[in-house]
Amino acid sequence: MVQKRAAILEVLRNSQGHLQADEIFRRVKQYYPNMVLATVYNNLHALTNDGYIRHIKTATGADFYDKTPTPHEHALCVNCGKLIDADLGDLAAHLRERADIPVLSYDLILHTVCPDCDNGCDQNNT
Amino acid sequence: MVQKRAAILEVLRNSQGHLQADEIFRRVKQYYPNMVLATVYNNLHALTNDGYIRHIKTATGADFYDKTPTPHEHALCVNCGKLIDADLGDLAAHLRERADIPVLSYDLILHTVCPDCDNGCDQNNT
DNA sequence: CCTCCTTTTAGAATTGTTCTAAAAAGAGTA
DNA sequence: TACTCTTTTTAGAACAATTCTAAAAGGAGG
Question: Which one of A51, A67, B74, B102 is separated from B29 by 20 to 30 angstroms, measured CA to CA?
Answer without folding.
Answer: B74
